[in-house]
UniProtKB/TrEMBL annotation:
Signal peptide: none
Residues passing through the membrane, by range: 29-58, 70-90
One Gene Ontology term, aspect cellular component: gamma-secretase complex
Subcellular location: Membrane
Membrane topology: Multi-pass membrane protein
GO biological process, one term: Notch signaling pathway
Keyword Membrane among record annotations: yes
Protein name: Gamma-secretase subunit APH-1
Native species: Bison bison bison (North American plains bison)
Presence of keyword Cell wall biogenesis/degradation: no
Summary of subunit composition and partner proteins: Component of the gamma-secretase complex.
PANTHER family, A to Z: GAMMA-SECRETASE SUBUNIT APH-1
InterPro entries from the UniProt entry: Aph-1
Length: 127
C-alpha cells in the first residue's frame, strides 16, 4: 500500500512536468542542453540568494518580529533581483553561443531565440 501511495503522489506531483518534458523537450536535442544549462543558472542564482539570506539573518540575529518581517521582504527582493540578473546572463550567453556557432559554420542557420525558449511544439507549428 505504501508503494502505491508513493507512486500515485509522485505521478500527481511530477506527471505534468514529465509530460511536458517528454512531448516538447525530448524531440529537440538542443533544447535538452539548454534546459540543463538554464537549470544550472537557476540553481546558482538560488545558491547566491540563500548565501545572502543566511549572512543577513546571521548579522541581524535578533528574533524581533518587525525585523523578521523586513528581513523577509529584503530576502524576496534580493532573490528576485539575483534571479533576473542570472536570467539576463543566460540570455547573453545564448547570444554569444549563437554568434560563435555562426562563425564556426556560416552556412548553417543558427537556432533562433524562439527555439531556445520553452515553447511547446504546437505553438511553433501555428506560427
Amino acid at each position: 500500500m505504501t508503494a502505491a501511495v508513493f507512486f500515485g503522489c509522485a505521478f500527481i506531483a511530477f506527471g505534468p512536468a514529465l509530460a511536458l518534458y517528454i512531448f516538447t523537450i525530448v524531440t529537440e536535442p538542443l533544447r535538452i542542453i539548454f534546459l540543463i544549462i538554464g537549470a544550472f543558472f537557476w540553481l546558482v542564482s538560488l545558491l547566491f540568494s540563500s548565501l545572502i539570506w543566511f549572512t543577513t539573518a546571521t548579522l541581524i540575529g535578533n528574533k524581533d518580529e518587525p525585523r523578521e518581517k523586513y528581513l523577509l521582504i529584503f530576502g524576496v527582493l534580493i532573490s528576485v533581483l539575483i534571479q533576473e540578473m542570472f536570467r539576463f546572463a543566460y540570455y547573453k550567453l545564448l547570444k554569444k553561443a549563437s554568434e560563435g556557432l555562426k562563425t564556426i559554420n556560416p552556412y548553417e542557420k543558427a537556432p533562433s531565440m524562439r527555439l531556445l525558449a520553452y515553447e511547446p511544439f504546437y505553438m511553433e507549428k501555428a506560427m
